[in-house]
Amino acid sequence: MVDFDVAIVGGGMIGLATACGLYQQGMKIAIISDNHQLYRELDEHQVEIRASAINYASQKYFQQIGIWNDLLASNRVQPFDSIDVQEVDGFASLNEHSVAYPHSHLGYIIENQLIQNTLYHKLAEQKQVHFFYQKVTDLFFSSDRGFIQLANGNQIAAKLIIAADGANSFIRQQQKIKMFTQPYKHHAIIATVRTEIAHQACAKQIFYPQGIIAFLPLWKSNESCLVWSTNPQNANRLVGLTNDEFNYQLNQIVEHYTGQCELISERYTFPLIARYCVNTVKSRLILIGDAAHTIHPLAGQGANLGFQDSKQLTDLINSHYIEHHDIGLSRYYRYYQLNRHKDTLIMMAAMKGIQDIFNGNNPIKNVTRGVGMNAINRLNCLKKQIIKYAME
């Protein structure tokens, strides 16, 4: 059995960022993942399909853990300076530019694999960080340790275990921690598209009666990450089309805003489900990221919620570790849990409200959303508060 200060289950962006936030205090850290390819070489000419909208708070966290300059050096970080929200066959619209805010950009679009590669590089250089590429088969606790049983028969002990193992978290299920779920009744299709009109560092969202189509600008001037959210039947139909048929369906909706769109990658689809875990903190165990909550991707805030879980948690662990406290005691994390619940619930309520008001083609809804969104667009103080909350 090997003994650690912290064991992190999950080798995705949130788990690796958490390890980066902790190792600098000299803690001995285990990272456990059944993914043997946490690092994957990127094609220098081709963008990745999965990307995240990174807000100012997450960017500051990246600076804190020492990866921001490395990300910038890749020349694959795309700032976005404006947002443009439009409604097809309606009059609702909202737009904003970074010049109205104290930050140079509204946010950044960064490929998930680039973030993961950069985090992995940072951690691979640290002697006190150890990777275990194994499945977790069991988890149990004593008064002063948590114990992780691995598929190869080895066992890991740690003062604190952090579950960052995703929406279908084995740790959460094994510990029978209750999670509330509510399907959004939408599936997301993600792909990379090339647009006739250059994105000009603008993130676009287009609402239409059957769903939402978002374009996240990538580091190539005419390429964007497409996130198309629609009902499951329509999503399955769209995924089954040929590329030409898919392009035709997409252009019927968005050509007015982007010019001709062309699919240049595979398409992936997955169901969208709101998940919320009330008890994310137990003695010697804390759930973060998608293991604790998932939200609709329409505002691109899912990754940012996870990175803020990581930032606030690592700051707290570090402060108690420096004071030589037992970092596994749950009483140290009660305020953290309440604070993260507040941010998560606000964001979940906002996403659900926006989806509901734009869903369908009810005439009353059409007028309500048009009047409401245009009023927000004209009331600069209110608009700034909403966008500033999403940024920070």
From TrEMBL:
<protein>
    <submittedName>
        <fullName>Ubiquinone biosynthesis hydroxylase, UbiH/UbiF/VisC/COQ6 family</fullName>
    </submittedName>
</protein>
<dbReference type="GO" id="GO:0019168">
    <property type="term" value="F:2-polyprenylphenol 6-hydroxylase activity"/>
</dbReference>
<keyword id="KW-0274">FAD</keyword>
<keyword id="KW-0503">Monooxygenase</keyword>
<dbReference type="InterPro" id="IPR051205">
    <property type="entry name" value="UbiH/COQ6_monooxygenase"/>
</dbReference>
<dbReference type="InterPro" id="IPR018168">
    <property type="entry name" value="Ubi_Hdrlase_CS"/>
</dbReference>
<dbReference type="InterPro" id="IPR010971">
    <property type="entry name" value="UbiH/COQ6"/>
</dbReference>
<dbReference type="Pfam" id="PF01494">
    <property type="entry name" value="FAD_binding_3"/>
</dbReference>
<dbReference type="GO" id="GO:0071949">
    <property type="term" value="F:FAD binding"/>
</dbReference>
<keyword id="KW-0830">Ubiquinone</keyword>
<dbReference type="InterPro" id="IPR002938">
    <property type="entry name" value="FAD-bd"/>
</dbReference>
<keyword id="KW-0560">Oxidoreductase</keyword>
<dbReference type="InterPro" id="IPR036188">
    <property type="entry name" value="FAD/NAD-bd_sf"/>
</dbReference>
<feature type="domain" description="FAD-binding">
    <location>
        <begin position="4"/>
        <end position="322"/>
    </location>
</feature>
<comment type="similarity">
    <text>Belongs to the UbiH/COQ6 family.</text>
</comment>
<keyword id="KW-0285">Flavoprotein</keyword>
<dbReference type="GO" id="GO:0006744">
    <property type="term" value="P:ubiquinone biosynthetic process"/>
</dbReference>
<comment type="pathway">
    <text>Cofactor biosynthesis; ubiquinone biosynthesis.</text>
</comment>
